[in-house]
Amino acid sequence: MTACLVDGGPRGPYGMRSWSRRKLAKASEGVGFWWHSIDLGEGVVTPGRKSAELLAGEWDALDLPDLAGKSVLDIGAWDGYFSFEAERRGAARVVALDHYVWSMDLPRQQQYWAECMEAGAVPGPYHERPDLWKPGELPGKAGFNTAHRCRGSKVEAVVGDFMTIDLDRLGTFDVVLFLGVLYHLRHPLLALERLARLTRELLVIETEAVALPGFEHHGFCEFFESNELNGDVSNWWAPNRRAVVGMCRAAGFGHVESRDDPAGHPPSREALHRYRLVVRARKGAPPGAGGAGSASPPPGG
Ligand SMILES: C[S@@+](CC[C@H](N)C(=O)[O-])C[C@H]1O[C@@H](n2cnc3c(N)ncnc32)[C@H](O)[C@@H]1O
CB 3.0–4.6 Å: which of 51, 140, 172, 289 could bond 104 by disulfide? Predict the structure, then answer.
């Protein structure tokens, strides 16, 4: 873990503790791998693979309502950027749930991945390698823990696999964030059904997606048996927009909307291509429908 991890001390803006820049920088450096660039205060931002600019753009693309007073569940939180941002924006309660990368020795996993790529080999499933997979120690949670303590955060961490965790014990939330997780799951429709059980108002999904011009009215998913998607063996599916929207409706979300192009880049019209898709789903009956959860296509669809 890291050097500055002590409780107590005065708080700065947004509840961040007033630690010195040197202390915060040392804490950041003590983490072997950062996925998120997180503001620790005093001008110290963690060196995440996702830059601060990229994350700010991703946050904006979610188009979230005012979170003041809301309860928020961030599934697949990793280092916690979205959890901490929800907290900073006034959410009354934020829960960050993860287990997969938290269980991983991330610097070692990166090294293993690079060696496989250099050798032209397909990496084995990370969780089947005892040198990488340490669920008893949670080495990959060091980033979240560090940011949490440096920011003086009250975000609650839950270590668990969303697909098997006891949903009754987890409770329900006004807003559920499901960002970058759907395509990692073997059973996405089951995931949507589980999400419907704990979402009170709004579910926001951000996912890898596929598009095939001319087939927009068909719901389908591209399946990855191995590491075809971004060289990552933990990726299974790239659904198209129609499939994500349809799965949300089938799972009981009556109002589903999506912007095909959250990043502002027009998808190629030429061939099958992949991009990031944001879908927002609300509970309740679809407009004009008799019952909740209708999976029938929209008129003319
Ligand atoms: C691509 S990362 C996305 C991280 C973050 N949400 C973001 O958008 O930057 C996928 C995250 O989902 C987590 N994850 C994958 N499967 C999960 C599961 N079944 N339950 C909980 N978390 C899961 C991984 O551990 C990882 O943190």
Answer: 140
